[in-house]
Fold these 2 entries.
Entry 1:
Amino acid sequence: MEIKWQVATQQSQTMKQFLLKNGISQRLYAKIKAQGLPVRLNNRLSSPADQVQNGDQVSLTLPAEPADETVAVSGVPIEVLYEDDYWLVVNKPAGLATIPGPTNTTDTLLNRIKGYWQQNGATDLVPHIITRLDFDTSGIVLAAKHQVAQSLLQPQIEQHQLQKFYLAVVAGTGLPEFGTIKAPIGRVGVEPRRRVIADGQSAWTDYWRLAQDERLTVLKVQIHTGRTHQIRVHLSDLDHPLVGDQLYEGPLDWGIDRQALHAYQLTFNDPFSQQKRQFTAPIPADIQMILPTKINDKL
């Protein structure tokens, strides 16, 4: 696999310094040197001491990652929103797990991505899921095509710089036009339900009210942290559970048979091209059916 960077820095640095600052671990760098893997600077073979400057292009050819033979291949199609040499963006349907677990090892989104790549001749790719969604949450999932791409995005994840927006339909009315929820989330015993508890992990959610009728409210939601069930926990703690969310006691007979939550937009800075990437997933039909009004222009 060839990885390319468009250099965007005013600080001159050696090739070795550049690679170590851009997702190449010390262990992988040692492997590059030992195996003589080609590193190019502006299409010419480079040495570790060569100076890398703003506007340069760096490319590195890496061997394929070892395949994870424990992950089964699923031939069920996926909805691809975007794909390039490093990233795959998929619109996950509700009712599908993101990764294999004890109850399903053969047909999750990860299995389907592996099958999709194999069907298209990319048998040497290993999917690395960046953004996960709950089983019954639909919407955008980002996967990296190589561990280097994943590691390059990790600082943005840790610094909460990935912008993730959701559409949520909740029971009840009376929420303000804008709200911020900063309440720690944790687990009590072994129950699957998470709760707002004093000694939980910090969690931060913002929401904007888009529409409401006599019994429900439509929200645009942004999460700044990625706790399990974060949106579901925070909104149910406000006594506004998601419509269709059985686990958090949302109403189950309002026209949708899963929690009304859809990850509709994702934005991040591509560390390879130094460009902002923004993706949008259309609102699925089952959520549109319960909306009191069309809200696409408000998202």
Entry 2:
Amino acid sequence: MAPVIEKSEEPLVVLGSTVKTISALLDQLETAIKASPATQKPPASDVNALFLVHDAAKLIRAHSTKLSLLIINTPFTPSAIIKVLREVAAGPLPSLGTAVELCGAHVYSDIMQGELQWRVRKVFSEFRVLLKEIPLDGKVLTDDQKRGTGKTVGKGSLASTGVLWQACDDLAELKNLGIAGIVVQKAEQYRDTLKDAIEELQEWGNESDDEDEDEDEDEDANTDDEADDAIPNTAQDEIDDFFGSTMHIPKDDPNKIRPRLELSLRRLKLVAVMFTAVVKRRFKTLSSLSLPELSTGDYPLTDGKLTPPKPGSVIAPAYRVDASVDILRTITELVDNLATAFYDLDTEAIVDGMDQCFSTSLRVTELLSQDWAGKDDAFTTWVSTENFRVF
């Protein structure tokens, strides 16, 4: 015989069942996102995936606010909580799953696809945390449970709500950022890394000059107090010596390190200028492209890896974006390797590093020499000048 459920307990039973149902829905949506291959093309649609996630994220934020208030204020009303949960499950949560399906790499770029997926999963994860804060015993949360001041209640419902709000805001932000905003952030990050490497390499070269001057002064200085030489270094002196033990360019420079350094610095500064030009003339202009324009052309992606397009094929803007950003990232890695070669005074590695770094830089200009419509412009002219072709 089935147990008899008191009428007063029915709303709590339904609430518990609803919480389990939504938890299962989140599992299904997260599994679908993980299982979706990067090469899969979404169905043809005029719906903008970024607009869809914006609206869904705003709704989830609003519903989470209602939910947060309902579980901390008296009287505890299971029916109201159930209503909010069902509204979220019926619209905003599935909409995020749909947006992920629509955000194909061949249109929105692999970079944007990955960013959107990550932010959607963050919202799912934080909504699950808030879901676990819902009391199923019919009692509103205590102050400890609200503020996370107890020993076993975690960070508290208010903090959980705040983290979910931030996740929703970050996801909604993608609409305003667009592909251009995300790509510009990446490119500027790599440019700043490049500039830091150039500055450090230049300082190292200057230190080498100072080292030569110090040696000259040491040769002319009197060293009467030989007793001091017998005093052992302190522990701090040894640490300073260890971290300051980078080799410097010899005064006679038999392997011609300094001319290579000066040439490399001139070229690297030009590469940094190229980064800035790419951001201004190419990546920022992505914001003016419509979905049909972004969808035009092939996007050669195999097993999640970019592959060279077929000769004569029309290349989608998304492919050019992903390929060029990947090259910019590679350039920063190559510059780091080149700097290490200089610090080690490794002539062979310096020559090889210079060749790799600057030949790779040319690949960016070749890929982005024309605008997104395949036409020449000011950037095309600039990268064709002799000054830039010193690479």
